[in-house]
Structure formats: C-alpha cells, structure tokens
Amino acid sequence: EIVLTQSPGTLSLSPGERATLSCRASQSVISSHLAWYQQKPGQAPRLLISGASTRAPGIPDRFSGSGSGTDFSLTISRLEPEDFAVYYCQQYGSSPPGSTFGPGTKVDIK
Amino acid sequence: QVQLVESGGGVVQPGRSLRLSCAASGFTFSNYAMHWVRQAPGKGLEWVAVMSYDKKNEYFADSVKGRFTISRDNSKNTLYLQMNSLRTDDTAIYCCARGVPPANWYFDLWGRGTLVTVSS
Predict the structure, then answer these.
(1) Which end of chain B is more exposed for a tag (fewer CB within 10 A), N or C?
(2) Which of B44, B57, B111 sits opposite A101 (nearest CB)?
(3) Mutate which of A99, A100, A101 to test chain B, going by most B C-beta atoms within 10 A?
(4) Which candidate in B38, B98, B106 is best for mutational testing of the A interface (most A CBs within 10 A)?
(5) pLDDT tens figures, A10-64
(6) A79 by DSSP, 3-state: which?
(7) For every one of its 120 residues, what pLDDT tens digit does chain B have, with 9 covering 90 and above?
(8) Strands annotated E in A1-110
C-alpha cells in the first residue's frame, strides 16, 4: 500500500499570501492518479485537482497542482478568506485496486 | 438537485452489524462507480470500498476486507454498505462519493455522511 505523507501539518498564513503544500508518496505514483481535496469544518471534501495538475470544474485558477513520481505539491497563489481549510492529497492504484489519502494539511489564518 | 444522502448510522456494540444506505438523486446513478469513504472523528479520510457502475467489480480497503460488503440497486438509485463484525476502530462518519469517469477513482460528489459509533 502506498503511504502518503503531507507537510507541513499546519500552515499559518495571512490572506493574500502564497501557500505551498507538499504530498510525498512512499513509492512512485502515476501522475494521473493523484488528486487534491479541500475540506472545511462540517462539510464534505471538494475535489480541487485531479491528474496531479488538472483543476476540477469551477475551481479558481489560484489553485494549481504539480509534481511527479513521489513528490507532489498544491499551490494557492493568493489566499482568499474562503481558502482556509484542510487539504488532502489522494492517490489510487490498480494493482491491487485501491486508494489512500494523506493525513491532511490545515491552512489557518495567521 | 444533484445529491447523495446517507442513512443507517447509529450506535452499535462491537461484533454486531449495520447496513448503511446512500440515496442518489439528480444524476444517472447507473452510469457511475460509487465509493464509501470514512472519517473518524477529528481524523483524516480513509477510502473504504468501491462498486463499479455495472456491479461487476468491487474492491475493499484491507482494514474492512472480509467484514464489509458493498452493493447497489440501480433501479432504486441506492448504494449500500453492509458492515459485519464491527470493531471500535470502525467508528467514523461514513460518506458515499461518486467516482469521476473514466478513472472512477476521483470523487466529485459527496454526501454529508452518517455517523457510526461502535461502543459497548
């Protein structure tokens, strides 16, 4: 099973600042099999990025994803008040079929 | 309205069983793979199980394999999760989620979840 590690655990920033979140895999992940989600308290997660870098419909272009192999990142270019939330990376595999999530990075207001 | 609504959660003793349901509306349920994902209180997300749109394929996380089964009734637009031999570490909010074609392993629609508490 591929284990995903996210860093930092908490990121304290101010609105307007740039946020860079890291997701590291215990073994190589096919780029098309990596996604990012945003979750706010009391809400279901929202798909932000699939295929490591493709924004989901309706996701603002301040969100961008990149990376390959074992190292992936999510960047929020300028934090808006509504961006303060927990972010999870997710990977899936086909041998055997399954999926794992990282432990999450909380982006909170400094 | 495009939505997923889970039901069936509750408090159950260790070793007992529970069946969860997920009612879909506003989209063609029979076209999509459907998943269960859980979140223990204050914790992260854990994928649990998936069933393909045509019921031909199903896969489970190792943590629930052999204890949980997944099924769906496309005529009723409903997904199910049968949970047997429940353990205290199965305590979580259980959400159903829709898989995005063609990969089917990204989740673009989630329910709000139903809470399962396993406790003596």
Answers:
(1) N
(2) B44
(3) A99
(4) B106
(5) 999 999 999 999 999 999 998 889 999 999 999 999 999 999 999 999 999 999 9
(6) coil
(7) 999 999 999 999 999 999 999 999 999 999 999 999 999 998 999 999 999 999 999 999 999 999 999 999 999 999 999 999 999 999 999 999 999 988 899 999 999 999 999 999
(8) 4-7, 10-13, 19-29, 34-39, 46-50, 54-55, 63-76, 86-94, 97-101, 105-109
Which residues make Cβ contacts (< 8 Å) with residue B41, sequence separation at least 6?
B91, B92, B93
* Contact by Cβ (8 Å): B34, B76: no
CA distance A101 to A6: 10
Cross-chain CB nearest to B106 (options A50, A96, A102): A50
